[in-house]
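Practice problem: DUF721 domain-containing protein
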Amino acid sequence: MQRAAPATSRRMGNGPKSLAECGSFATLAKKASALEALDRALRQTLPSPLREQVRFANLRNDRLVFLASSPAWASRLRLMQTHILATAHAIGTCASSVTVKVVPHPPVATAPDRSKPLSPAAATHLRAAAASFTDPEMRVLFLELASLAETADSAVPEAD
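Answer key — structure tokens:
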């Protein structure tokens, strides 16, 4: 009986690595710490507005990979490639090119403004709608809404 050939650990393609290929947590933490230090060292030499819009992501082979929040910031960073490479060489990092990928910031979720009171006209329409309902629950709900407009209106001082 023949034994099956052992599975090789060679990866195909550039996709994510398997957990076994990543190594120990300590190794990953050490690499993350080194990348963070390189990020600080490279970005501190950039002009202030650019520094806040880009992040160093990785050192792959001899290529510095940055992430920019927009195509405009990516273009500005590409214009500084010579400066970035000189800084990298000065701190002992072997790199021959800079790659910039655009990764927009996720949109900031805004909460709706709930402080806007209902107008007195809205309260009048809500009371009229409540009077037309035969369903007592709906009538109560519309009258509660109308009362919110009335309490909001009473909090505003009247003009003489």
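Discussion: The domain at 24-102 is CATH 3.30.300.180 (GMP Synthetase; Chain A, domain 3). Students who identified this feature from the tokens alone can consider the problem solved.
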